[in-house]
Amino acid sequence: MRIVVLAALAASLVVPAFAGDAATAARLRDAALNDSTAWDVLTSLSYEVGPRPAGSPAAARARDWAVAKLKELGFSNIRVEPFAKPSWRRGAEDVEMTAPFPLKLAAVGLGGSKPTPKKGIAADVVVVNSLADLKAAQMGAFKGKIVLVDQPMKRGLGGYGEAVEARYAESEAAKRGAVAYLTRSISTGTGRAPHTGHTHYDDGAAKIPAAAIGVPDADLLAYLAARGVVRLRLKLASKEQPKTVAWNISGEILGSEKPDEVIVIGGHIDSWDPGLGSIDDAAGIAIATAAAKMIAALPQHPKRTIRVVLWGSEETGGAAKAYAAAHAAELARIVVASESDLGSDRILKLELPEGAAGKLEFASLADLMKPLGIAVSPEAAKDAGSDVEGLQKAGVPVFSFVQDSSRYFDYHHSADDTPAIVDQAQLNQNVAAWAVLVYLVADSDADFRGKH
Amino acid sequence: MRIVVLAALAASLVVPAFAGDAATAARLRDAALNDSTAWDVLTSLSYEVGPRPAGSPAAARARDWAVAKLKELGFSNIRVEPFAKPSWRRGAEDVEMTAPFPLKLAAVGLGGSKPTPKKGIAADVVVVNSLADLKAAQMGAFKGKIVLVDQPMKRGLGGYGEAVEARYAESEAAKRGAVAYLTRSISTGTGRAPHTGHTHYDDGAAKIPAAAIGVPDADLLAYLAARGVVRLRLKLASKEQPKTVAWNISGEILGSEKPDEVIVIGGHIDSWDPGLGSIDDAAGIAIATAAAKMIAALPQHPKRTIRVVLWGSEETGGAAKAYAAAHAAELARIVVASESDLGSDRILKLELPEGAAGKLEFASLADLMKPLGIAVSPEAAKDAGSDVEGLQKAGVPVFSFVQDSSRYFDYHHSADDTPAIVDQAQLNQNVAAWAVLVYLVADSDADFRGKH
After folding, report:
1. What single-letter DSSP state applies at residue A198?
2. Integer angstrom CA distances of residue A45 from A63, A88, A127, A268
3. Residue A303 to residues A30, A69, A226, A239, A295, Cα–Cα distance (Å)
């Protein structure tokens, strides 16, 4: 339905040439490649706040960090917008193989998982090779068992979307009698560190405890289960916190001529807890703030306002809806929106809002992106980050910088998501691209949805 | 001193042409590249036994696995040779930053570390950039502090030897008043998993608890310590087990003409406990057993005996000395010895025993190795694996296959050492090279130390 609406709007699209000076944009781009702001922001959030799930005490420290950092970087109109965010908090976890020999497994509870009884759940494991095999099994087939879906994730586009369904299959296992659910980590890596992420419980099935185990641990269980009985003991503690709050935090570079017209960019400040949340998503915040800061340092601010938003609850949802609701009155004045939320590796292509890519006026944009190795795609942006979905559904045009994500899922949602895996040169290529595009749009009269 | 002895022996070297048939060697080589034995052995030990430090209950399971596996693969004269091996056993460990904010660190106690008191050690951390800086500090400089040496390991030859000295510096810290010692993991990787290894306590200093922390955790502590007070709480439990036993286990492919002349090859069966001990050193065992098994499958066994040894205590020492002592009576009959103990990645070059490389008789060897991308080095082997050091000191000639170790220290001694990081094609390149060399030497009269 969303696509139909966008297509209708595209028919009346008006896209004037960018007023912004291409030479200025080129200077911004080249300066960004050697700027340390993004690296400094990324490491500051990673090291000074650490992991910061929505609803945790760390999230409040992250909020304070954000306000101080936006101030330090020279942003105006710094806003902290609270919204109700029931949350889930991990407790002690211990997953152990007890037969054929004792071995502590690398495991992490999935977000939202129900806890096990205090003494744990002890049962034999059944290893199923794929989600399709799980779904093909008869009701009751896994009565009293712990089910492991050992479906490897394929590297490359679409791999995550396909693989992640196995992380959401706890109810499929429960319907077939399982007492607990394990998924092979949704990962393209070889590391032992397990990758967490959210559960999807159906109301029609028992809510059984669910965890992810390390890729090598899944290999081990599959090997052993093919040769005999494998028994596990799971202890997963957690609690629901129904009354917690999260915050969407923002700061602005005020427009010099049309400050009421706003470009919304940013990343999310919440993270999963096993790692330091560096590629997911300190990187997005670092890229957006650094790009905006560089534009702010020009002799004159561009015409329109650039707003950097640090969304407060992406991993477990809620921020996008809260943001769209809180900004319902200004939706028509949001020129375009996008979130950076696919790590810190290089951008491969830019997807513009529906109807914009074919316009001749964008020739200078393609020339500006070319030295960065970025193509301007003929296809329109569809996915511009979960946190702008609320805006997008409400009709705000979006763009998307498509990044090289081939390494991203080696680390994503695991303990290995730290600054150690970030390549500063690639991070800065992102900053350069965002600075160019945001500057050009901000200094233009471009209207990506036509008259309204 | 060892070098002097070898040089003296080299003077009387007699190296006849290999009697072994080059065409047979080439067939062995090519078959090895497509053989599954090494992979099967590596995964069997990794998955069916798991981590197996000397002196642990798992080591006894590893011994039983070894005997059964050697039998299954067709080896003769299977021997289990016990030796006394006092050992150290890890207990519960917990290393947490308590200020400036609470964060559980990725940490692992170093082998042999003294335990902390049950309630732990709480102290501020001092981060020292290098071992040289630690040694340059005055006595008493770190009174009451936890010292972290944050010295990154360089990738490439010699990197480990230089970096590992920081793991042995607990007494240097203790002499300067430290209450506990931390080392940045001796690792070239970016993973969070900490890398263990042994301590080196001096008698002249307090024996303080010692642990390794993950590379990203060291980065974090260094970042924060540069900006304010960082406080940690360490809890490390462990116990000494003075009465434990380890076993050197071996099996033979009996020689058809001169069964008393023996070629000793192998790997070590003990491993550190965080990972599955796949590259360190199930790989060495897999390579040696697979090569010997392929030679055994020839229509006729070569003249000399090939003995595969699974040394029982490399990581914490003891096996080499025990082996040389137990085999003192047959030292003169050990033609040559070598251990595979640098992982599963490809071999780059072969170093022969002192004096052998220059001989024209080895031309066929170079031709046989060339398709594997292996050069026959003009330099003689010096390091042929810790477990043959006892034999080497007693005058047994050694050879060495020098492997590409550029990835090895990303994983070594950490939880990430599992079959998931093993490249079967590279593993088999090792098998091919070992099969060729061992076959040629076994079917020859080559005497690498001259008459005795």
Report:
1. B
2. 11, 22, 39, 12
3. 22, 24, 65, 48, 11
Rounded to whole angstroms, how far apart are CA atoms A336 and A292?
Answer: 15
Helix (H, G, I), strand (E, B) or coil at A401: strand
Tokens at B113, concatenated = 């570390």
User: In this complex, do A419 and B219 lie within 8 Å of one another by their Cβ atoms?
Assistant: yes
What's the confidence (pLDDT) of residue B9? 42
The whole model's pTM is what?
0.94
Please return the burial class of A451, using the count of CB atoms within 10 Å of its CB with bins 0-12, 13-18 and 19+. exposed
Strands B258-268 and B334-339: parallel
DSSP B167-208: GG-HHHHHHTT-SEEEEE-S-SS--SS----B----TTS---
Contact residues for A354 (Cβ-Cβ < 8 A; gap 6+) = A6, A7, A9, A10, A13, A380, A381, A397, A448
- On chain B, the residues whose CB falls within 8 A of the CB of A223 are 43, 47-48
The residue among B63, B103, B192, B421 with the most chain A CBs within 10 A of its CB, best to mutate, is B192
B:127-186 residues touching chain A, CB 8 A cutoff: none
Contacts of B68 (CB under 8 A, 6+ apart): none
N-terminal to C-terminal alpha carbon distance within chain A = 20
Do residues A216 and A192 lie in contact, with contact meaning Cβ atoms separated by under 8 Å?
yes
Residues linked to residue A180 through DSSP beta bridges, in sequence order? A146
ipTM score above 0.90: yes
- Across the interface, of A48, A192, A420, the residue whose CB is closest to B416 is A192
- Say which residues have a Cβ less than 8 Å from residue B274's Cβ, sequence separation at least 6: B51, B108, B193, B194, B195, B196, B413, B414, B415, B417
Show the tokens assigned to B1: 């001193």
B100 part of contact set with chain A, CB < 8 Å:
yes
- Beta-carbon contacts of A329 under 8 Å, excluding residues fewer than 6 positions away, are none
For B254, the token pair is 């009996």
From A314, A315, A354, A389, active-site residue: A314
Nearest to A201 by CA among A112, A317, A91, A107: A112
d(CA B270, CA B413) in angstroms, rounded, equals: 12
Per-residue pLDDT for chain A (452 aa), expressed as one digit of tens each? 333 334 334 444 444 445 568 999 999 999 999 999 999 999 999 999 999 999 999 999 999 999 999 999 999 999 999 999 999 999 999 999 999 999 999 999 999 999 999 999 999 999 999 999 999 999 999 999 999 999 999 998 889 999 999 999 999 999 999 999 999 999 999 999 999 999 999 999 999 999 999 999 999 999 999 999 999 999 999 999 999 999 999 999 999 999 999 999 999 999 999 999 999 999 999 999 999 999 999 999 999 999 999 999 999 999 999 999 999 999 999 999 999 999 999 999 999 998 887 665 656 899 999 999 999 999 999 999 999 999 999 999 999 999 999 999 999 999 999 999 999 999 999 999 999 999 999 999 888 986 43
How many interchain CB pairs under 8 A, A with B? 90
Q: Is A268 left (phi over 0), alpha (psi -120 to 50) or beta?
A: beta
Residue B314 appears among annotated catalytic residues:
yes
Write out chain B residues lying below 8 Å of A103, CB-based.
Answer: 50-51
Q: Are A200 and A173 in contact (CB under 8 A)?
A: no
- Answer yes or no: do B415 and A192 touch at CB < 8 A: yes
Which candidate, A376, A391, A72, A364, places its Cα nearest to that of A263? Answer: A391
Q: Is B397 on the interface with A (CB under 8 A)?
A: no
Side chain identity, residue B167: R
Alpha-carbon span B314 to B318, nearest angstrom: 7
Q: H or E stretch including A175?
A: helix A170-175
Nearest alpha carbon to residue A111 among A198, A16, A47, A29:
A198
